[in-house]
Design the sequence.
């Protein structure tokens, strides 16, 4: 598409200036007021200073006025002298800047040499060429994993050295040991396994990695028959048994070996080069042990702490994986599309308990060491790595069951356990509500929700184990305001909405994050009403709350389209903002209003069933919703309403229209639309300047004449 500067295309500058001056006051007021909005304390999503500044820049009259300059010979000489001085200064400046830049490039190169590589001859190669040594960092493609290998399941045993429970050897304190098997399917032949991994200690001996395969059934039967004939009857040692007593299929070395291992911290990958090619269609088991450290920065597996009632420090280890921090705890295929089943065994100190996504099978079992116990968990459902969660703590819980028998537990530190009662009631109620709304039974046998003193987000929707900041889960009517009660309800409703939309069906890639968060935002209003039996009247509040927030942000040139390419997973953190949540929710609400709730809901159920345990893109939702559009619902052109076509201008370009109404005569009015910008002069970032749809939208209009409601009409153009 050609590069066009839309600020030149407007041709409305004079009018816009007039409009801006006239509307500055009322708009500034409107924006300032949004902070009084009772639920806006929840909308703490990252805001840049320009976003939070509600003032409007208005050019002062005469600001650009130029003055006449009279020039004499003396003046000319002075000017020439000044010019030469500036030129010399510029040369010196350029020299210093280049020196500084190249100095840093050299430092960067050194830093990157921290990437370690170990070859089969045992040599360590620290001068890996691994990534292009430009100052721009790796490309988006380099950061992605190939689709040649697909993880089917992970079996992870993890021993977590959380302090404060038992004596821990100094060198082990705040670390963890992992033993991992990944079952991998080969979709394209390859002689390389790439896993995401950050700051994990992988074995340096290449013989510590095993690549196994199943023993073909016929051969295995023959071998065991032979063994049984020749040996006295004892328990067959070739048959592995798992923690639930099930027989594991027999495996043998595949003959493929790891010949080189490179840990590239820049690409956040561990790369294993193999002696042979993994065969297409085959399944392999990749096995190794590793170590890691419990993080101190609220990412991956991190340490959280609090003071108990005696003022003593207590510790717990908990995870926060979204968007890309699972790779800090376990080497894995850390992209949302690689859904896999997780089987976990957690070895934890005596006095602690372990919780994870799935229900426990064996709890607090003895190990051979008296200080350590273990807990095993059922297999998770197939899920994305960003939803993986575990916690080792001395927390307590309250428990209940939903009508359909889902075990529901709310966990907190001991001192706060009486403040969990509201969340338990709220959680059960809204889970039952969503089962009815989505018309899909909650797919897990249990749901845990835990409150943490340190937590980076407000809450996180890990499947079966939702984690919260304390203030969004705990409620004590004697101490907290009704508004805090409301925010607990809102956050619980939001995270439980994700258990279907987001967890059961997950976005293929992070560019559709807005759909995930926008949808949960839409549902949190209905969910909160279900929790409060309508008392909070949250659904009515959507326009004043979420939509108004979205308007405030999206009226600025610094906004961005809802859908924009996210090439690097690391960029996704920036996308968690008001546009993603509130505009996302508002656009979905508009689609719901156009279709009618009944049809929207039906389409949603079809979508969730069609893509369950799998991934989808926004177009998949639009197409499924379009199939649910009722007969007679047409677009502006008289064709059957198509959600994809309608949604594009609303999601692919930033901003929104303001509709002007002009009375033509006694019986007629004329409507027109124009993008609403709080400052007409402010320019969009160049990458969004070419609005794909010329800042026009199809606007559904609901209106009434003399109190009589009329059918919806379209404003196109
Ligand atoms: N998935 C998010 C949590 C999250 C946010 C993870 C940013 C990683 C980065 C969760 O569903 C969420 O939206 N939490 C909100 C609370 C909610 C009630 C608005 C949050 O943390 O702001
Ligand atoms: Zn969310």
Sequence:
């Amino acid at each position: 598409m050609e590069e066009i500067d839309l600020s030149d295309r407007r041709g409305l500058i004079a009018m816009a200036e007039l409009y801006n001056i006239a509307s500055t006051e009322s708009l500034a007021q409107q924006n300032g007021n949004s902070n009084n909005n009772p639920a806006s304390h929840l909308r703490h999503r990252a805001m840049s200073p320009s976003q939070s500044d509600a003032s409007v820049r208005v050019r002062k009259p005469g600001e650009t006025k130029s003055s006449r300059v009279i020039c004499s010979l003396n003046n000319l000489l002075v000017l020439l002298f000044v010019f030469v001085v500036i030129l010399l200064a510029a040369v010196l400046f350029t020299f210093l800047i280049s020196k500084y830049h190249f100095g840093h490039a050299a430092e960067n190169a050194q830093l990157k040499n921290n990437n370690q590589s170990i070859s089969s001859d045992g040599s360590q190669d620290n001068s890996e060429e691994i990534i292009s040594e430009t100052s721009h960092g790796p490309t988006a493609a380099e950061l992605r994993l190939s689709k040649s290998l697909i993880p089917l399941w992970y079996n992870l045993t993890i021993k977590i050295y959380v302090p404060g429970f038992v004596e821990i050897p100094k060198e082990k304190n705040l670390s963890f040991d992992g033993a991992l098997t990944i079952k991998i399917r080969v979709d394209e032949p390859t002689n390389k396994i790439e896993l995401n991994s950050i700051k994990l200690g992988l074995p340096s001996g290449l013989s510590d990695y095993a690549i196994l395969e199943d023993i073909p059934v016929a051969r295995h039967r023959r071998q065991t028959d032979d063994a049984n004939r020749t040996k006295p009857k004892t328990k067959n040692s070739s048959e592995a048994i798992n923690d639930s007593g099930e027989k594991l299929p027999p495996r043998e070395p595949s003959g493929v070996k790891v010949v080189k291992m490179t840990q590239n911290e820049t690409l956040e990958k561990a790369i294993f080069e193999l002696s042979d090619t993994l065969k297409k269609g085959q399944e392999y088991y990749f096995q190794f042990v590793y170590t890691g450290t419990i993080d101190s920065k609220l990412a991956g597996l991190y340490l959280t702490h609090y003071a108990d009632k005696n003022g003593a420090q207590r510790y717990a280890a908990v995870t926060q994986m979204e968007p890309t921090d699972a790779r800090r705890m376990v080497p894995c295929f850390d992209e949302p599309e690689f859904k896999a089943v997780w089987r976990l065994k957690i070895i934890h100190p005596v006095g602690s308990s372990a919780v994870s996504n799935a229900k426990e099978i064996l709890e607090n079992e003895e190990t051979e060491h008296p200080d350590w116990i273990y807990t095993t968990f059922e297999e998770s459902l197939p899920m994305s790595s960003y939803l993986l969660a575990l916690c080792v703590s001395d927390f307590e819980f309250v428990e209940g069951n939903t009508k359909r028998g889902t075990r529901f537990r709310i966990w907190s530190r001991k001192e706060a356990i009486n403040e969990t009662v509201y969340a338990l009631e709220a959680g059960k109620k809204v889970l039952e509500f969503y089962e009815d709304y989505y018309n899909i039974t909650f797919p897990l046998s249990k749901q845990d929700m835990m409150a943490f003193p340190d937590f980076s987000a407000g809450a996180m929707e890990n499947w079966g184990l939702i984690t919260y900041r304390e203030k969004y889960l705990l409620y004590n009517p004697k101490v907290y305001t009704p508004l805090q009660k409301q925010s607990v309800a809102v956050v619980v409703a939001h995270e439980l909405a994700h258990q279907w939309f987001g967890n059961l069906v997950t976005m293929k890639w992070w560019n559709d994050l807005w759909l995930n968060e926008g949808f949960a935002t839409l549902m949190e209003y209905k969910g909160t009403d279900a929790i409060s039996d309508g008392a909070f009247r949250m659904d009515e509040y959507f326009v004043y709350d979420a939509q108004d927030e979205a308007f405030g942000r999206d009226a600025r040139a610094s906004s961005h389209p809802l859908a924009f390419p996210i090439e690097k997973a690391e960029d996704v953190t920036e996308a968690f903002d008001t546009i993603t949540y509130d505009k996302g929710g508002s656009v979905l609400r508009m689609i719901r209003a156009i279709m009618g709730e009944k049809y929207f809901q039906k389409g949603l159920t079809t979508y969730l069933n069609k893509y369950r345990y799998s991934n989808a893109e926004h177009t998949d939702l639009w197409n499924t919703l379009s199939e649910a559009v009722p007969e007679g619902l047409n677009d502006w052109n008289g064709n059957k309403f198509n959600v994809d076509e309608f949604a594009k201008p609303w999601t692919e370009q930033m901003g929104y229209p303001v509709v002007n109404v002009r009375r033509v005569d006694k019986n007629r009015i004329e409507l027109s639309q124009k993008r609403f910008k709080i400052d007409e002069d402010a320019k969009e970032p160049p990458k969004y300047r070419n609005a794909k749809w010329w800042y026009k939208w199809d606007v559904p209009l609901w209106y009434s004449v003399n109190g009589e409601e009329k059918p919806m009409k379209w404003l196109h153009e």
About this structure: The chain has a mean pLDDT of 84.
